Amino acid sequence: MNIDKNSLRQSMEQQGYICEEEIVITVFLALKLGKPILIEGAPGVGKTEIAKVLANVFNTELIRLQCYEGLDENKALYEWNYQRQLLQIQMSQKLTAEANSDGGSCLEQSIFSYDYLLTRPLLKAILAERQPVLLIDEIDKTDHEFEAFLFEVLSDFQVSIPELGTLKAKQIPIVVLTSNGERELSEGLKRRCVYLYINYPTVDKEVRILMAKVPEAGETLNQQIAKAVAFIRSNLEIMKKPSIAETLDWARALVALHADALTPDLIDMTLNLILKNKADKELFQEHIGSKRLAENVGR
Amino acid sequence: MQTLEFNFVQFAHILRQLDIRVSSAEVIDAANALAEVDLLNKTEVKSALQATLIKNARDRLIFDKAFELFFVTPEEKQRRINQRVQQLLEKEAQMQAASEELVWSESQWQEETDSMEVQEVKIELTPEQLDTYTQLPEQAKEQIKKILEQASGNSINSPQELIQRTIQGALNYWKYHLLKQEEEKQPRLNHQTTGDHALDHIIEEVANSFQGYDEEIHFQDMKNISDKDLERAGRIIRQLARSLGTRISRRYRQSRKRRRVDIRRTIRKNIHYGGVMLDLKYITGRVQKPQLLLLCDVSESMARYGSFILQFIYGLSSAVDQIDSFIFSEGFQQVSLNFHDDNDFEQTMADFLNEASKLGRGTDLHQALYKLNSDYRRLLNSKTIVIIVSDTKTLAAEKALTQLAAMKKSVKDVIWLNTLPKSYWESTKTVWLFSKECRMFECYTLAHLEKIVRQKILG
Fold this sequence. Notes:
Number of helices of chain B: 18
Largest interface: A-B, 38 and 41 residues
Radius of gyration of chain B: 29 Å
Shape of chain B: flat
Order of helices and strands of chain B: HHHHHEEHHHHHHEHEEHEEHHEHEHEH
Mean pLDDT of chain A: 89
Structural class of chain A: alpha/beta
Oligomer: heterodimer
Shape of chain A: elongated
Low-confidence stretches of chain A: none
């Protein structure tokens, strides 16, 4: 792939994705080496966003496979439209009875054609005319069997459908896998990928993100928001730490309330946007409190 | 002059010695990645190596340290190698001196001269034992020398072997004790040296300066979690247990039988289509919640492990059908625990430890298993998973093994959570003994516990 680091960095920034050099280099290497990129990190740090940004940078389609427990080949690769096939058979039976002829072999060919094939994300990515970005989101939610199936697909980018033959990819997709780290992925999968870990951002980086996405909040308020969220993340053992997405929501909410600085009252009113758990909110009130937080970020 | 490829392969080798799995395919990827970046830009080189060699967030800390130590100027590298060689020479000199100190005087009657002659006999010790001796506090060294002095001069019954075994035994005890002390100060990073000073100085410096991972309490030995961190540990345990429990608590899950049609449900569903099987229903398996029976060693050093593990297991109550728990040391007792009220964690821990202390300080697993097999037979059935929490050190190990083998026939599985670090397993006979009759896992941190429960018990 003809791309250089600098143009990739600029393109990503143009798409509003603020990131460190390490992320740019890793994405660049994945593209250059033609390997899938496996991105791990806490929820809401911008893993999925990278795939969206790449799709925009290369002006191509984003094909998303959202993983979940129990996901199998049929839902990921392809499935025959069984109901439509059955209806076709029923209708044909009526027609052939009226015409008094035997259309069996023609019928069999037609019901196993592309018209009756439900292409799921992986097959869509393989058959795409233009190189797409294939996002396999939250791969850690699937089981080991699905991972093993994925090795096969990601190694060769071809699939054998008995009725249609072997279908090869015209263009090897750009593959982005994301994981929340809920379980350890297999060594085989990790070995085939370039690995990127995205941690929660530093205060400076989060301010830059806020200024890019919510500029109307102003620098002062954005600084305070970033400091407040960083303080909560590093000082509280909460179940769910606020993600970047939640920080952005908080900023937008404060703008809607015409806030120009963080006050204890505002924090109390909008705490629900960053702490989504009753136990976490209680912990916050017990150990920090809105007054202390406002004082801390006001410095 | 070493080539880039040679240096880079050395670096990959260092990572392997620091217990990071790096495959040959990844080494090739890293070489290809280096070809795409500016080799004079440290950030780019580091990112390229990190992206291709490190596939785990936790290994990044080790990688960072190793990278900083490896990619230095040749002069700095040479200085460190020289420093290491010097340290090794000093160590050798100390061991030589120790070998000369640890002598025993044997008196033998010489017929030619018709008199007693005193000969100095060196105690045969392995290099490891000598190394342990050099690390001993002065007081301990004096005690060992005193044993030798007292034994000296007595040639009756060839006591040389006896003295040797006594000294070796004392040094083995001290080796274990010193290792424990070191681990309590900071977490131990598994590593192996290569014999090449150019690499070993980096490996040892990374291993010795390793401060542990970011979420320290997850990776801290449970018995070292201080009282002031108890509340935090309790919260972490409840969070881990809750997130595991909600994942597993669904009543049904997709069958692993891969789309076998459930004929009965399909027919019932399609009656209103005139019998045409338009909507297929597939077999789904009902999740079988396990029944757990916990047997916790609460002897002197073990009680704290037991209390954390029990707290964790009880936190899974939504994902488990039934939990019965027992504690043992010299005595044996069934315990009923109330961990449901989050605020009482510290109190419940305190009560538990208090209860445990009444049972004595030693460990008699045989007694505990015997009582389970006889008095609590009704709890041992094909759905029961028995979880034993112990470091395997017990009286009457062979008898305990017999009881364990008998129990194993009645239950679904026996899982042993061994609080002894894996590095000690090879030298502990009871580990080998008991692992014949159960699945044994290293479990002395919260991270171990969470992984074992998720993968081996609820998985």
